Amino acid sequence: MTMAPPVVAPSLVAGARRRTILYVVAGLVATLAWSVVVNRFLWRQPMFPYPPRFQDLREHLGDFHLVVNGADPYYLRFRFNDTTPPLVALLFGSLSSIHGTVRAMVFLGVNLACVSVVLTAGLRTVLHRPAAPLFALSAAILTPVTVLVLSQAAYSGLWWGQDQIIVMALVVVDLLVVPPRHRGYLVGLGAGILLAPVFFGLLLLRPDWRSVLRAAAAFLGTALLAAVVNVHASTSYWFHLLPSGEAVRRVYFTSIGRQGNSSLIAFAARPPFTHSISATALGYALAAVVAVIGLSAAWWAQSQRLGVTAVAAVGLTTATISPVSWDHHWIWAILLPIVAMELWATHRAVAVASLVVIPLALLRAYPVTRAIPTTEPWVANLVWSAPSLVMTVLLAALCLSLWRSRSAPRSNPASA
Questions:
Q1: CA distance 413 to 416
Q2: Same domain? 301 vs 228
Q3: Residues 207, 301: one domain?
Q4: Is 305 within a domain?
Q5: Could you read off the pLDDT of 140-177 as tens digits, one per residue?
Q6: Could you tell me if residue 315 is inside a domain?
Q7: Residue among 100, 134, 101, 130 nearest 117 (CA)
Q8: Which of 105, 260, 332, 404 is most deeply buried (CB count within 10 A of its CB)?
Q9: Domain end point (choices 209, 244, 279)
Q10: Is residue 277 in a domain?
Q11: Using CA atoms, how far apart are residues 99 and 201, in angstroms rounded to an integer?
């Protein structure tokens, strides 16, 4: 006998819709309110006495005017490490028509909303709860706590006027929210803004190889969009700077050994390794090993329906192996508390480790490490490189734990 589906009263549906709208509106109002608070906080608690806040945002706006006027910012800024494609200048160019506090509020509001979306998507995947109340909770409480208390990465991204938070939101929504049949477009768009999301193609392979084609199409579309405005600048970036390795060399020679650079490659380029071993060979060898470990952990996490863990593993791997990892590049670490929740039932030791590394990775600040009370260069190197070192240990522990449980995949329909 076939049972009839339950009948839902229209009043209940309308009530649920009203509650959803109220939750979303409450989240947006909270985002606006916290934008005002963070704007004042950035003025009163600057990361550096110089340069002023939003320095990178100002550079992108300058590039925007160069691109639309037919100039090539990559040629004019040859001595600077600008490794972002022309699309970034076009996206930030939308802020060129507003100024002062309005521009700051728009930028901060968009980024805080993106943090709330990331936290909502992660919590929804783990807790299997409706997204609207989780968004209100994130916008009102979790996002400000993440930015102002837990995460130096988020605060640094806001201070400099960076794009990592927006790119992270694109990737997380694509992999955790968008249905598999439409997955890939946002990852491709993120890769067109910042090349690191290319690594997330690994996670697109498992549900459907067509997702990779969609990501590639979106990636190509972003490049063509920028080329329509300025063919010379796009050609210079995609066909010269990247294939020749010039983009990486600019970063390497200007930033690789500087204080604040916390990648493994920077770790190998500072004492005690300099003058005794090839820093380049050691750095890229370490990066290759960690890449295999981190991406393997992400692959096995996804196979066991641990979606948030898989995304966090790829993101943290890219920050660890990048030639340059400033504070804002570690934005993926804001997923670690949610990763601990997802792993608690089946991989408790790794879940605890995910929480333990938060004080080492999320609370780290360059203005603090710049004033390390020691004259020993190798001790300073350990402190500056702490995020990549602790993430390497965490990724190795995660990889080992997931490898042991790889034959018993979890059942988690929400992250499928």
A1: 5
A2: no
A3: no
A4: yes
A5: 999 999 998 888 889 999 999 999 999 999 999 999 99
A6: yes
A7: 134
A8: 332
A9: 244
A10: yes
A11: 37
User: Is pLDDT above 80 for 276?
Assistant: no
The phi and psi torsions of 187 (rounded to 5 degrees) equal -65, -40
Residue-wise pLDDT for 90-132, tens only, equals: 888 888 888 889 999 999 999 999 999 999 999 999 999 999 9
Chosen domain end from 244, 271, 302: 244
Q: Are 277 and 316 members of one domain?
A: yes
Q: Which amino acid is present at 365?
A: A
Question: What is the C-alpha to C-alpha distance for residues 238 and 85, in angstroms, rounded to an integer?
Answer: 8
Nearest to 139 by CA among 8, 35, 19: 35
Instruction: Name the percent of the chain in helix, strand, coil, to the closest 5.
Output: 75, 0, 25
Cα 16 to Cα 14: distance, rounded to the nearest angstrom: 5
Is 335 in the same domain as 218? Answer: no
Please indicate, yes or no, whether residues 238 and 90 belong to a single structural domain of this protein: yes
In Å, how far are 6, 9, 10 from 3, measured between CA atoms?
A: 9, 18, 21
103 near 95, Cβ under 8 Å?
yes
User: Residue 31: which of 117, 127, 91 has the closest Cα?
Assistant: 117
Distance of CA 92 to the CA centre of its chain: 18
342 and 288 inside one domain: yes
- In the chain, the amino acid numbered 283 is G
Question: How many structural domains compose the chain?
Answer: 2
Q: Is residue 397 part of a domain?
A: yes
Q: Which domain holds residue 304?
A: 257-416
- Residue that the structure tokens 């992270």 belong to: 168
> By C-alpha distance, which of 192, 237, 242 is closest to 217?
192
DSSP states of 303-321: HTT-HHHHHHHHHHHHHHH
- Rounded-to-integer distance, Cα 174 and Cα 204, Å: 10
271, 275, 276, 281 alpha-carbon torsion, rounded to 10°: 90
Q: Which of 361, 356, 359, 279 is nearest to 325 (CA)?
A: 361
Can you give the pTM of this predicted structure?
A: 0.90
Same domain, 268 and 314: yes
Provide the 3-class DSSP secondary structure of residue 194: coil
Six token digits for residue 115: 């943090």
Q: What is the pLDDT of residue 413?
A: 41
The answer on 227 and 91 residing in a single domain is yes
